[in-house]
Amino acid sequence: SFVLGLAGDVSETAPTAQISFEYDSSATPQNVTLIHDGGSSFSSDNVRLTGSGGTDNNLEDWGNGQISAGDSVTVEIPDEDEGNTLRVIWQGSSTSATIARSTVPSGFSSS
Description:
Blueprint: E1 17-24, E2 31-39, E3 42-43, E4 47-51, E5 56-58, E6 66-67, E7 72-76, E8 85-91, E9 96-103
Antiparallel strand pairs: 1-2, 2-7, 3-6, 4-5, 4-8, 8-9
């Protein structure tokens, strides 16, 4: 007989959410506002903003614990230059996924 043990195998899937990026290079320090435009809600404990210039921020203040459509958070990105990539990374207990990405627009400089 064949027994498949699924009791401990709960598959996690990353949320499907539309997230927009609004950049402000005139702010000191420069920043980006992330806006949840629709789709799945998810826990702010499970997401980070990373950037190819060194940005690595937890987003626990976004959405007061649970991020839903309409919620936004502004994050300082002083180390990012134009052309760098920012990613919103969702981290489950056994898997992670990029749920949004954006290229830093012209006018941004880490200097």
